[in-house]
Amino acid sequence: MKDRTDRGLRPTRFRTEDASSNNPIAQPGVMAPDNAAKPLEPEMAPIAAATDGDPKGPRQQHLTPFQESFKRFRRDKKAMISLGVIIFLVLLAIVGPPIYQHIGGSYNSTTNGVIGPDQYHSFGHAEVDRLTEGPSAQYWLGTDGLGRDILARLMQGVLISIAVAVLVEIVDIVLGIIVGVLAGYYGGWIDFLLARFTDIMFAFPGLLFLILISGIMGPWADKNLNHIPIIGANGNARLLLVSLALAFTIWPLMARYVRGQTLQLKQQQYVEAAKTLGSSDFQIILRHIIPNLFSIVVIASTLNISNTIISEAGISFLGLGVQPPGSSIGLMVSEGSQYIRTNLWVAIVPCTMLAIIVLAFSFLGDGVRDSFDPRAKD
Amino acid sequence: MIQFILKRLIGLLFVVIGVTFITFTMGYFAPDDPIKQLLGQHYTQEAYLQLKHAYHLDLPFFQQYYNFLTGLFRLDFGLSFQSKGRAVWDILKDGVPVSVELGLWALVVQLALGIPLGIYSAIKARTWIDTTNMLVMLIIYALPSFVLATFAQIALVSLDTSIPGLNWPVSNWGTPWHYTWTDIQYKLVPILIYGAAGFAYYARLARTSMLEVLSQDYIRTARAKGLFEKAITFRHAFRNALIPLVTVISVSLGFLVSGAFFIEHVFNIPGIAETTLTSVGASDYPVIQATTVVLAIAVVFGNLLSDILYTVVDPRIKSE
């Protein structure tokens, strides 16, 4: 615990040292040797020279808790592969569409005249005579029941999933930390309110709450939020609503975790020491409590992401989320399931994609939990 | 014990009131005017006011909420907007038995398949059986139920096309609580898919729990005194491994409530969740409020049940 408090004060140059690939300590599977008692190893000589003979240098070879956790994480093959898949998907969702819209020649459509790839490779464009086609050079993953490009819609859907996940996690973390820390640190009425509120939210099925909010407020959002650029256009108006409702259902759990951790941290001696030195409550919370919440917040929010993505896809699947000109993976599954008697492909593609995303985030979450849990040791 | 249950019941009453308040407020402040929607093109000012009065929607907020709450105790949920003044209780009476039937069978699937599979996996720990089993369980657990349901429908459709004359139904529900061959055909796949998430959850949990028990000292003692492996597994380990499983009934109830929406939607089953969905689409607030309260009460009593079971199963825990 002692090491964590001075994380902010560590000079930057030692960090670059620790991350250096020449450093035997950074290699997986090797315990950090206690360098204080030993002479420098030969590989360390150039680094030691670079640090200009700082007498405290070798002692800094201990990894920070974060680096130790990261080392554990890098050894987890499933989690690393999942991380790779997720990074690929994020790139696909962000840079995929602009690239895809520049690939291919012009196409003489029966209804739209001569159009370029920037049109027929966009997620909203429909070609009425190219329904439920298999993969081809023009449509890499084929077309759906309305003649729209499945790959383009898939990339847009992944983008929606990730955007909702990020938004929900931000709200979740901010609300969870604020309320959780206040409840844990001060107790009293705020703690009481949090406990009662959490009880109600646990009894209220989260999905039902989402359905109610997006079903009841949805038409209003469609009407009033659709002129907001990007987030409101293309039938995405309800996404903001869905994200906020989703964050609203999950933040009490985060607050409960944070509260528990804060209660423990409050008992720590360094907090007492800080109090004795005259730090204000605000300073203690900011300097000593919140930085130490790092691992629990990271674990809880990573484990949450796949649930968030499933919920958004589920709401869109039920027809209450993203509306038809727009695209979401859940919406694609629901549209595809209408064609399973004639064309399985349209349903299989989004189902598989959703499965990949959800599994990747679950494995990542498990890996993060195993390696960032403070109780986890090598 | 009775004191504990009473205390919990009073706490639960507050939770139920909180849930009804949230639902009621949402319905009250909803931007859509259901009466206007109901009248459609027959809208006149006079008819509008009349209908509003008939549904007691012209009363002030707290008066309406009070009526709603007192109605709950008389099992009077008011009248549905959409089905032309049909009592909500009547609609619930159609949906609830179907949902309860679906849920109970899914619970049976979860427990009767999940626990033995997990125990078996624990006995075969660290063999290929265990590894593949747990990987499959993890995948089933992680996949959203509507993806599983869609995959199941895809499989059924391709079965139907590849075996002519099979005609296995892809959606819909047979007669509630009747089990002829046709009914079973209708019910089998939805129940299996509905139970899948909880089934995988129980299997994983049962494995962990069993492994923990198997590493205890008294199991080693039992082995040392030369007991048969079967006797160790079933008489000594199995019963103790069940304790943590009992407590997660509330978790599996959570799976059932949220899973219901997707399963009933995908397989077109006329249960309470599907009723909620159609009512949400039609802004039929009395029905929505009623179904929400029913679902919330189900969850709350599930939690209470698991707490009680916890104290019953594990004598170390006293109910103070």
From TrEMBL, chain A:
Q: Which PANTHER family match?
A: D,D-DIPEPTIDE TRANSPORT SYSTEM PERMEASE PROTEIN DDPC-RELATED, OLIGOPEPTIDE TRANSPORT SYSTEM PERMEASE PROTEIN APPC
Entry keyword Heme: no
Record-level GO BP terms? transmembrane transport
- Its source organism is Dictyobacter vulcani
Major subcellular site: membrane
Family, similarity comment: Belongs to the binding-protein-dependent transport system permease family.
Which is one Pfam family of this protein? BPD_transp_1
Q: Which GO terms describe its cellular component?
A: plasma membrane
Coiled-coil stretches noted in the UniProt entry, renumbered to this chain: none
Any idea where the ABC transmembrane type-1 domain is?
158-365
Spans annotated as Disordered = 1-40
Give the UniProt keywords, A-Z.
Cell membrane, Membrane, Transmembrane, Transmembrane helix, Transport
From the Swiss-Prot or TrEMBL record, give the protein name.
Answer: Peptide ABC transporter substrate-binding protein
UniProtKB/TrEMBL annotation, chain B:
What subcellular locations does the record give?
Cell membrane
**Keyword Transport in record:** yes
Q: Which segments of the protein form a coiled coil according to its record?
A: none
Question: Taxonomically, which superkingdom?
Answer: Bacteria
> Pfam families this protein is in?
BPD_transp_1, BPD_transp_1_N
Gene Ontology CC: plasma membrane
Q: Domain named ABC transmembrane type-1: which ranges?
A: 96-306
Bilayer topology reads:
Multi-pass membrane protein
Q: Which residues cross the membrane?
A: 9-30, 102-123, 135-159, 184-203, 242-267, 287-313
Keywords linked to the UniProt accession: Cell membrane, Membrane, Transmembrane, Transmembrane helix, Transport
The UniProt entry, under PANTHER family, shows: INNER MEMBRANE ABC TRANSPORTER, OLIGOPEPTIDE TRANSPORT SYSTEM PERMEASE PROTEIN APPB
Q: Which family does it belong to?
A: Belongs to the binding-protein-dependent transport system permease family.
What is this protein's name?
Glutathione ABC transporter permease
Organism in which the protein naturally occurs: Dictyobacter vulcani
User: What's the gene?
Assistant: oppB_2
